[in-house]
Amino acid sequence: MDTDVLVIGGGNAALCAALMAREAGMRVLLLESAPRAWRGGNSAHTRNLRCMHDAPQDVLVEAYPEEEYWQDLLKVTGGLTDEHLARLVIRASSTCRDWMRRHGVHFQPPLSGALHVARTNAFFMGGGKALVNAYFRSAEALGVEIRYEAPVERLEIEDGRFVAAWCDGQRITAKSCVLAAGGFESNREWLREAWGQNARGEWPSDNFLIRGTAYNQGVLLRHMLEEHQADRIGDPTQAHMVAIDARAPLYDGGICTRIDCVSLGVVVNREAERFYDEGEDFWPKRYAIWGRLVAQQPGQVAYSIIDAKAIGRFMPPVFPGIVADSLPELGQKLGLDAGTFMQTMERYNAACRVGKFDHTALDDCHTEGVAPAKTHWARPIDTAPYYGYALRPGVTFTYLGLKVDDTAAVRFAGQASRNLFVAGEMMAGNVLGKGYTAGVGMSIGTAFGRIAGRNAALAAQGRPAVAGAVQD
């Protein structure tokens, strides 16, 4: 064999798997499709992971118990989640930080202010780039072999058992394998295929921007689903999709392109009409629905409108907003129909019932007599200067993936493979059927990356996989 455990991918889940397998004494080869400078996949753009805890901990305040975490996930997914696997992730999130620290990850003190997540999320010092760099350094120090610019085109699988991978014409054999090569969000043709054409013959997905890596082409995912008929899960149109600045680059814009002021104002489409409740819930629980909402609007564009009262209450974006001294001037600068825009704004302002405004709580500021309603944080937009941000759908990762059980094994016709495992975006759809809540993607990748790495090591030793999360 060329190696004991082959790991395909270079993000958080892949690195967790490689580190676990190497800690178990296995020879490990990791194949990263990107060049070294762009390593880490979408994990390089992250900031935190969502953590369960029953009492204040090192970098987390108060408590965030299992049941509350589960209810938050249940709400955003609308029930499209495997409760057993979701609770596995939730419980694993409470114990992983010490292991992460042993591999060089540092956490920053609890955050306060506009993010509302000091209780629920542990933030990496230096963000996701620092995290993946720490993991790569640890992997190299432990003796994991790493190859960059090494995309895998296909796998040899016999009777559900991994045999070999083909990379740049080379056949690589291993006793076991972990797939952690990401989704298909960077594959423009696959996005077209998934989203189709609208009634005008346009391709909505052509207007999508990709928040993360350009290297998640979904080649291995499609190969597994079509050539090997692996069990699948998820809707190809469901994704972690955020409303981002329309001026963002096509790839790798990351978190700084996100527009976080949606809940503090109103959002209108190209026809200058509102289309959804901007105050439905806290931003960390609802930010990832707005990309899909914008994707369903004409031209896949919308505009977030705020006034001076909102400034200082949200994370400022990298691009400044369009500024005006009056609402008519702002509508004109944004290219919106003046009459419709002013009618929309006047109706909203007149409908506001302002109570005790508190952007850190589900307050009683709401609208009456206007559709859609705004259920919290509704205040008239009436204080100059006014700001507008053009929005586009920003895709982070897709939810179509491989169905798994609590061993992280790939399944074929309902039967778990004995030596082929999957982690990260390639299986996140088991937990995320739709929707998102901040930090849960890294929780899934960390939990299942470690499970997959542990079980790949056991498979390489000829031993059966163990169900459940890794116990430190």
UniProtKB/TrEMBL annotation:
Q: Which domain of life is it from?
A: Bacteria
Asked if the record carries the keyword Oxidoreductase, the reply is yes
Asked if the Swiss-Prot or TrEMBL record annotates the protein with the keyword Transmembrane helix, the reply is no
In what residue span(s) does the FAD-dependent oxidoreductase 2 FAD-binding domain sit?
4-431
> Which InterPro entries does this UniProt record tie to the protein?
CobZ, FAD-dep_OxRdtase_2_FAD-bd, FAD-oxidoreductase_2, FAD/NAD-bd_sf, Succ_DH/fumarate_Rdtase_cat_sf
Please name the SUPFAM superfamilies in this protein's record: FAD/NAD(P)-binding domain (SSF51905), Succinate dehydrogenase/fumarate reductase flavoprotein, catalytic domain (SSF56425)
Its needed co-factors are: FAD
Q: What are the alphabetically sorted keywords of the record?
A: FAD, Flavoprotein, Oxidoreductase, Plasmid
> What Pfam families does this protein map onto?
FAD_binding_2
Its recorded name reads FAD-dependent tricarballylate dehydrogenase TcuA
Origin organism of this chain?
Answer: Comamonas endophytica
